[in-house]
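Retry 2 of 3 after timeout on previous attempt. Resubmitting structure tokens to design endpoint.
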């Protein structure tokens, strides 16, 4: 009886290990370089900096959401467009899409624009079935925290287990890698 129990435990252990090995995660991120509030002109967007750390720590693939019509390079012009899109409840076209069906966990990154995610991210969200996914949101901001995104993402990603968003100041993400890593350690557990 003991030999059978050990054999069963070994089979279950191998099965669990195989399942864990098959679990896949993806980072879906929108990030904007150019002129940004609090950090000036940058080559790599604040949110992308966080996505790159997550990719290093988890081995996850990064998929960058890119609007077909890029946002203006100047900060003030960009936030004007962002506000107009929000007021119109726009769904800007994106350059390409990504099949998320094979991923179990999705890290979902975005800057906070006027208290919400950029509207191009809604374009991505609404193109997919989120049932059974674990979604771990992370965002950058300069004082507004995660805005209303905890509520809006749960409503938009029907069927997903959407975790509480991690909010990191954009200036921290851009200029302080060790502080960013400490902040991200909470969602990487």
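Retry 2 succeeded. Sequence:
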């Amino acid at each position: 009886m003991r030999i059978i129990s050990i054999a069963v435990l070994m089979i279950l252990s191998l099965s669990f290990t195989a399942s864990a090995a098959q679990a896949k995660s993806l980072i879906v991120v929108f990030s904007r370089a150019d002129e940004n509030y609090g950090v000036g002109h940058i080559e790599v967007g604040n949110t992308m900096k966080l996505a790159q750390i997550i990719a290093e720590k988890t081995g996850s693939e990064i998929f960058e959401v890119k609007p077909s019509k890029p946002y203006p390079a100047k900060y003030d012009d960009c936030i004007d467009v962002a506000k107009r899109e929000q007021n119109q409840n726009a769904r800007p076209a994106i350059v390409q899409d990504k099949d998320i069906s094979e991923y179990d966990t999705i890290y979902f990154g975005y800057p906070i624009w006027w208290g919400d995610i950029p509207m191009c991210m809604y374009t991505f969200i609404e193109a997919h079935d989120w049932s059974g996914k674990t979604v771990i949101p992370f965002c950058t901001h300069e004082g507004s925290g995660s805005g209303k995104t905890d509520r809006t993402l749960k409503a938009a990603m029907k069927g997903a287990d959407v975790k509480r968003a991690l909010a990191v100041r954009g200036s921290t993400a851009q200029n302080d890698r060790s502080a960013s890593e400490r902040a991200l350690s909470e969602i990487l557990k």
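Attempt log closed. Residues 88 and 110 are 20 Å apart (CA to CA).
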